[in-house]
Design goal:
2 strands, Cd81 Antigen, Extracellular Domain, Chain: A, 2% strand, Tetraspanin_EC2_sf, single chain, Tetraspanin_CS, 248 residues, Tetraspanin_animals, mainly alpha, transmembrane helix
């Protein structure tokens, strides 16, 4: 039962990644095929874990060695895969960081309030900037690459970056700046947050690192216990000694 619950949690997490439309995960999921693939992998692992939990229970109750052996093997494969994925993420973190910068940089450069095709993606990024109180990926300067703002001589700025609650609640995605005398401006003239979202995301990860590691460790321990119990049960199941059966 415990492994079926664990499988349901993993399955639900994968579905949440695909379904979420209002967080940083949504920005990555809609921009990066690799994260979408990872979500499908999580859904598959969750479904497999639930199935293995059922087969493990069936094998233990009916003392079926082959089911317990299959249960042990699948758990071992899942555990090894999880450890390998963790190691890949750890050793490739700089590459992942560059990929994130590329994704967000492209989003900001092509951000267009009148483009309904990317509305969900842009809504998700506005939500991130509002919730984390940040602007751009490395800072507000990133928005100087936006095509629309360049055409407007930087006299507009993203409302979701604003440090004013009035601008954040505005229906428009771009807010008007009080135009200077020369009619041009820079990001330094905008009333926006100075912190880039990269720093905000990293801070969130650091603040929640203990919880993330705790959950991952708990899942690994549960899987390890399941492997130990399944192999112990398998060893304790004695094969029938058919030499003692009376001959007819």
């Amino acid at each position: 039962l415990l492994f079926q619950i664990l499988g349901a949690v993993i399955l639900g997490f994968g579905i949440w990644i695909l379904a979420d439309k209002t967080s940083f995960i949504a920005v990555l999921q809609m921009s990066s095929p690799s994260l979408k693939t990872a979500a499908y992998v999580l859904i598959g692992v969750g479904a497999l874990t639930m199935l293995m939990g059922f087969l493990g229970c069936l094998g233990a109750v009916n003392e079926i060695r082959c089911l317990l052996g299959l249960y042990f093997t699948c758990l071992m494969v899942i555990l090894i895969t999880q450890v390998a994925a963790g190691l890949v993420i750890y050793f490739q973190k700089e590459t992942l960081k560059e990929e994130l910068s590329r994704i967000v940089g492209s989003l900001i450069e092509n951000y267009d309030p009148w483009n309904n095709d990317d509305r969900n993606l842009q809504d998700a990024w506005d939500y991130v900037q509002t919730q984390i109180s940040c602007c751009g990926w490395t800072g507000a300067k990133d928005w100087e690459n936006n095509k629309i703002l360049i055409n407007q001589s930087m006299t507009l700025y993203p409302c979701s970056c604003s440090n004013s609650s009035k601008d954040i609640q505005a229906e428009s995605r771009f807010c008007n700046l009080d135009v200077p005398v020369n009619g041009t401006a820079t990001y330094a003239d905008w009333p926006v947050h100075e912190q880039g979202c990269m720093d905000g995301v990293e801070k969130w990860l650091k603040d929640n690192l203990g919880v993330i590691l705790g959950v991952c460790t708990g899942v690994a321990v549960i899987e390890l216990l399941g492997m130990i119990l399944s192999i112990s049960l398998c060893k304790n199941i004695h094969s029938e000694d058919y030499t003692k059966v009376p001959k007819s």
